[in-house]
């Protein structure tokens, strides 16, 4: 998919697949193009080039969507809001109490939405996405406003929905919340997919997580020793396939100061920061 707004190229040949039975995570900084991708998938905007195929699974028709907590009418109750939506999309109103209970809002069903907290409004949005018993779900920043209990609840819900055979696409820039949820991570940067990998592959990677005083000197040591490294943030690195003792000894011999060091496995955060850093290096090289 490609999409421009005037002279701004929002999407530059974006291509990826969201398999049935998996939670796929579309990650990127604000402005990377995540919401544009979702709007294109839903037909809310037309792309300039490329094609989109939704509901490839035979018989799949319905898509549940979460766009955020800010779209509700405050004067309506949660129950009234979902009943109005159910009538609009042709869903049974009998689903309203079921979805409110599923979202943990059963006791607040008759309260006006203006009295809801941000997290409660987000839960209402998720309940709305479930009204039509969708075959697939698309969620844009669904963790925003949720407290720790809500984050755990949503993670469990998404995994359950995927286990039932649904394709679930979650767009987020909150990487920590995705660590225990995602089956696949798709990194979007500057309107391009710069990496796409199963999370299970990341979990198999073992190495050392480091925060150093001088990244330039660290990079020199890594290059001399042939280490495979991934950038994990500012002055933070993940060294693959190297023991903690070996890393500490090598850096100490080279006079590289270490702030933190720990044996670790690969994470979505490591994968994201490394993919973005590599894409930027590629842009500079071109």
From TrEMBL:
Give the InterPro entries listed for this entry.
AAA+_ATPase, ABC_transporter-like_ATP-bd, ABC_transporter-like_CS, P-loop_NTPase
- Start and end residues of each ABC transporter domain: 1-215
Q: Which SUPFAM superfamilies match?
A: P-loop containing nucleoside triphosphate hydrolases
PROSITE patterns for this protein:
ABC_TRANSPORTER_1, ABC_TRANSPORTER_2
Keywords recorded for this protein, A-Z = ATP-binding, Nucleotide-binding, Transport
Entries under Gene3D superfamilies matching the protein: P-loop containing nucleotide triphosphate hydrolases
* Gene Ontology MF, one: ATP binding
Query: What family name appears in the similarity comment?
Result: Belongs to the ABC transporter superfamily.
Q: What is this protein called?
A: ATP-binding cassette domain-containing protein
